[in-house]
Amino acid sequence: MLCHENAEPADMPISLLKSITNNFSDAQQIGRGGFAVVYKGLLKHGEVVAVKKLSNSIGMDEKEYVQEVRCLMRVKHRNIIRFLGYCADTQGKMMDYEGKFVMADVRERLLCFEYVPATLKDYITDASSGLEWRKRYQIIRGICEGLHYLHEMRIVHLDLKPSNILLDDNLVPKIADFGISRCFDQGKSWVTVTTLAGTPGYLAPESYNIQKITFKLDMYSLGVIIIEILTGQKGYSSVEDVLKSWRNRLKTSSAIDTVLGQIRVCFEISIKCMDMDPEKRPTTQHIIELLNQTECMDEDNENDVQVWFTLIVSPVSAYKWRIVPNVKLELESGGVKNSKQGLTTAFKDDERPPTSSASFRDVDGLLTIKHVEYFKEVAALMADTVAAEVEINATSSTAVREGLDLVAVLDVSGRMEGQKMNSMKKAMLFVIMNLTPMDRLSIVNFSDTATRLSPLRSMTAAAQNDLKALVDGLLQGGGSGGSNIKAGLETGLAVIADRVNVEARVASIFLVSDGHQTSGDARQVDPGKVATIYTFGFGKGTDNEQLMTDIAEKTPRGTFSSVPEEGPQVTLPFSELLDDLHTVVAQNVQLTITPMTWDGHLDTIVVAPAGAGYMQATDAATGDITVDFGILFAGEWRRVFVTLTLKGVTTIVSGDEHDTPLADIELRFTAQVNPGDSIYPGPGRIEILRTWFPSQAPDVSTKLRQVKAETIRRRHAEAIRKARLLADNGQLDDARYKLVDAQRALEEDNVLDNGENKLVKLLQVELVKLVKLMETKDLYEAEGRAYALAFETIHARRPPR
């Protein structure tokens, strides 16, 4: 029988295909693409098949048809659509040509497949709804196994995307549509072509300037698809965002840590697949090995609540920690302004939080100091340059936390009436219901003046009901009056600064407004280190968004989020941030690098944190350079690049050599595992052997180019993010200007790789593509946003090397 799983593909007569599709009637049509129409066909014995009728346009020639049949004849796998047969039929037909009827040969090309009712695209949703994790994992695994089979058969698919992955009644994935696939002969693994086809958003970045077909093109597409299965969208900012979105859904699961472990592995696989360097993308074999390991995870992992960091410097040995009392901000009572912070406080009625889940534990070994791999092992005694990097990793465990102290500062001015007010109410009710009894919430509102409506209250069920009623009543009548964001912000900071029972609780402020101020200047407020400020903007307007962004960026890790004025996405920015804040494992994270200039070796030192938004200060008296990372969420990492220029030394006898200390390194932070204390690891050190006869190592400028390249990539990601936010608010002109500015910045960079400016050229290609995709609203929504998210993800969240 034709549909028997062991049947070989057959040459089918056109009469049969016409018969089973009712002469290709519109009623039987189940799909349409650029070069083909798909019909449902019903065989006599009741079996259903799919018949793909290729168009006669010049875009689909005979060579491509033969290529697709050739690929399909090779494959037979449960995760590949089953190919049943083909038809290439030529008939003579009378056709009108320039007013005359002529006889022309019409070529009909058809393919027949098993019928599969759905596509993966139909099932793409975020973690809050849709398929459970087990089903999603099975789909990911099936796609990987199907693609592995194709690559083993020397076939590059070239158009992997959710609409080309079919799902049967049991949700078994089947890779389909081999219209532009390429089959390699044995021993061949790549070929160059004049143009590369594919689908925007799934096409690898190198496809735009290097017309070379390799298996690595499929790996990039696979990475995008896995991200979509995990999150519902093509691009995502971090593994923490993915884990937090699944954590809420998995609350009742007894194996939550095992599942989250699988999700983390799948996310990391996707990021590796989307590496800008095709050679660094994994093979399908390696991916399947990683998936096998996740399936063997110990389900007892949820008992592991160890909280750890890793600081990598070199060369140093491990040191024990010393613990000193935490320095708390003391504010005078009675409403007296504090000269240091410029805050007025008179709040002493906070509720005492419940007993913390964080208790004192032995901190010995909680942080380890390891060797880092230098670019070269020794430096010359003549003038030379050394580059090193320091990396901090936070644990993925979130089992121990002290709790969140949150102040919501709400704009109730006349500017916020109507839909804005209703959306703010919806968002605040969401926040209230997603806090736990470990968390405390205070509400401040402002128009011309600011008022604290409630002290910090532990979010018990009773407190949640009270605050829901408060918010509902507060926002019931709409907004009125002017907008004094400065007063609201100062009052919120005062609530945090004057709180009691602080210990190691996470202090945060949610400022919710449309960013318009009629009195005061919120930019004048100095938040110091009282709390991290997160701003949420309702409404559009570049100037207003810039104000909200400026306020947030005054604190380490502070961020601005644009909130839709209506619709189901109103709560999304709040949901994402709350999930992050519930995974904080360290606060006040500071890395200090002290240059050692006393012995005359060190000339200059440059410290550059990877990424934007981190505060950096240099002590003029000591030369200490401190990078303030603020808070670290579970599973995050931070990296700092250190470039040291060394003076030439001429007073040492020829042939002498010695270890030269260049800088001391100290990491300081407050950990929830030891509430109320600041923790310091012992001093790490950067040092290197200086000799008259340095080893034959590559030029250190290569390492410096790597450092510069990392910085450029982060800046590039931030520019795309800002342009995307503008485009999301309909400000396409401003978004394009932002990208053009980024192009100009790239023109000033000179990052060489083997003599070619590859990185800069690749980033420029991305920007040119995004500028075009932001020309119209329809084009941006159809393709541009997906591109922006994908590129932003690739450049902003590369896994640590």
TrEMBL record:
Residues 24-309 form the Protein kinase domain. PROSITE patterns: PROTEIN_KINASE_ATP, PROTEIN_KINASE_DOM, PROTEIN_KINASE_ST, VWFA. InterPro entries: Kinase-like_dom_sf (IPR011009), Prot_kinase_dom (IPR000719), Protein_kinase_ATP_BS (IPR017441), Ser/Thr_kinase_AS (IPR008271), VWF_A (IPR002035), vWFA_dom_sf (IPR036465). Keywords: ATP-binding, Kinase, Nucleotide-binding, Transferase. ATP binds at residue 53. It comes from the Eukaryota. Residues 405-581 form the VWFA domain. One of its GO terms (molecular function) is ATP binding. This is Uncharacterized protein. It comes from Digitaria exilis.
